[in-house]
Structure formats: structure tokens, C-alpha cells
Automatic annotation (TrEMBL):
Polymerase/histidinol phosphatase N-terminal domain residues: 2-66
GO MF term list: 5'-3' DNA exonuclease activity; 5'-3' RNA exonuclease activity
CDD domains to which the protein is assigned, alphabetical: PHP_HisPPase_AMP (cd07438)
Protein name: Unannotated protein
InterPro entries: PHP_dom, PHP_domain, Pol/His_phosphatase_N, Pol/histidinol_Pase-like
Length: 281
């Protein structure tokens, strides 16, 4: 079993890297992608917790914005974690999250949904990358909503009047940076319409030109029609097809390993990195 997209408490998951590793082992995962939002800070703990029969594909999920304002998530896997350009891009994205969160709490409070930045910080694990799931958790704690899912469905989705974008690289810039750091780039859940505005098929040529390696097809937020369309695009463009859980622990319904990547597709994807960086020992 190969699951290339998961999160820990180093971003917006609810499991520590150690707990994530244990759950992956219990689920029978053989290759696990640890891909926290805009950070590599969980890599070291994940490596320490790893056991012999679990291989790690370390990476990050990079928050991007197209030139016309569509939010896109790009999975970077198997890149050199010491690459300065990569770390600068991740740091700049993290730094932009605070003013964004301040504005979102102000918009909510102005509409009578009282929530403060301090309450969001209180809901955020130490060392985590600030994000909307922490605002969702604060809203749950305050009694405004019953769950993270309800918070996103009603208040925090990309089309909500409370949604605020943050400074972010374009998907093409993120791909080029990932590739220059020796890694591979896979666009995450690109047709997930339940999340709000999405990419169109016409967006893929520029992503291919930038160096895109793969597309996450099998994902909880893709309908069967969306999966079928993406398989066709991937086949036409020679992209690797991946599947993943996008596991966040108790913060979302996603179960670890609920969608997986075919071993042959994983082998093809891994071969596209400039060095073998899968952690096996």
C-alpha cells in the first residue's frame, strides 16, 4: 500500500509524526508520503519513528495561487530538504499566513461570529504551520460549529466571503522550484469542486511546461467523473497517476490508505527525482 499525501501536527494534522508512522504501520502502508503544508519540520521526527518495513517519501504540500486567483496545492516529493530556494519558498508562504488569518477572524467577528486570533493560536499545536483547519478548530471550541467539516462547508471554503488568500507562488513557480531542488511535483486534488473554484483542463499545458510530473487522481474530494477525466488528461500528457488519503488525523474524515498509488506508477514517479531520497534505513 502506497499513500503519498498525509499531514501531521507540524501543519494541520492532529497526529504527531510518530503517531502517524504508527498508524501507517498498523494500516499496512509500505510507502508513506509525509507532506505537511509549507514546511519540512516534521521530517526528522518521522525518520526517527520509522520502522524497517515502512519507507518514507518526504515532501511538502505547497500552497499556490494561479494568476487569476485560483488556490492550488502542489505536492513536492523527494526534493533536497537543504535546498535554499525550496526553503525560502516555504518560509515565505508560512510568513504570509498570519496576516491572512488576522483578516479572516476580523471578517467573521464583524458578522457576529466572535473568534479571536488568540483563540486560533490556542487551537494550534506547538510548531504547526498556521492554517484554516486551526481556525475551524477554534470555531468548534467556541461552539460556532460542530466539526471541522462543518466549518469548511459553511464558513471557510474557498468561495466563502470569509476566505482570504495569502501570498503564494504560482503553481508553475512551485513546480520549477521543486524540480530545481531535485524533487518531483504532483498536483493535489486539482478537480475537487467541493473545495471551491478549481483548475480546468486548459491549465495543464503550462504546468507540463514547468515540469509537472504527476496528478493526484484518486482522492476523496474527486467524484468518479472527475477521476475519469483526470485519468484521461494524465494519459494524454504522460503524467504519473497517484492516489492518496490526504490524511489529517481526527480533523477530517479521511482514513489513512483509503486511496493509494499503484506501485508501478510510484516506481515511475520516484525515477523522475534526481537522486534516490526514499528513506529506507
Amino acid at each position: 500500500m502506497i499513500d503519498l499525501h498525509t499531514h501531521t501536527t507540524n501543519s494541520d494534522g492532529t497526529d504527531s509524526p510518530h503517531a502517524l508512522i504508527n498508524k501507517a504501520l498498523s494500516a499496512g502502508i509500505k510507502v508513506l508520503g509525509v507532506t505537511d503544508h509549507d514546511t519540512t519540520s516534521g521530517w526528522e521526527d518521522a525518520i526517527r519513528a520509522r520502522r524497517a518495513d515502512l519507507h518514507l517519501a518526504l515532501g511538502a504540500e505547497i500552497s499556490c495561487l494561479t494568476d487569476d486567483g485560483v488556490a492550488v496545492h502542489m505536492l513536492g516529493l523527494l526534493f533536497d530538504g537543504q535546498n535554499s530556494q525550496m526553503q525560502i519558498m516555504l518560509e515565505e508562504s508560512r510568513d504570509s499566513r498570519l496576516p491572512r488569518m488576522r483578516k479572516m477572524t476580523e471578517l467573521l467577528t464583524a458578522d457576529g461570529i466572535d473568534i479571536s486570533l488568540d483563540e486560533v493560536f490556542a487551537a494550534m499545536p506547538e510548531g504547526a504551520t498556521l492554517g484554516r483547519p486551526h481556525l475551524a478548530d477554534a470555531l468548534v471550541a467556541k461552539g460556532h460549529v460542530a466539526s471541522r467539516d462543518e466549518a469548511f462547508a459553511d464558513l471557510l471554503h474557498n468561495g466563502s466571503k470569509y476566505y482570504v488568500t495569502h501570498l503564494a507562488p504560482t503553481p508553475e513557480d512551485a513546480i520549477r522550484t521543486i524540480r530545481s531542488a531535485g524533487g518531483v511535483a504532483v498536483i493535489a486534488h486539482p478537480f475537487a469542486t467541493r473545495r471551491g473554484q478549481t483548475l480546468s483542463a486548459m491549465s495543464f499545458p503550462s504546468l507540463i511546461e514547468a515540469g509537472l510530473n504527476g496528478v493526484e487522481v484518486d482522492h476523496r474530494d474527486h467524484s468518479q467523473d472527475e477521476r475519469q477525466q483526470l485519468r484521461g488528461i494524465a494519459g494524454d500528457l504522460g503524467l504519473v497517476i497517484t492516489g492518496a488519503s490526504d490524511y489529517h488525523g481526527t480533523g477530517k474524515l479521511n482514513s489513512i490508505g483509503e486511496n493509494q498509488t499503484d506501485p508501478a506508477e510510484w516506481e515511475r514517479l520516484e525515477s523522475m527525482a534526481d537522486a534516490r531520497r526514499v528513506v529506507t534505513e
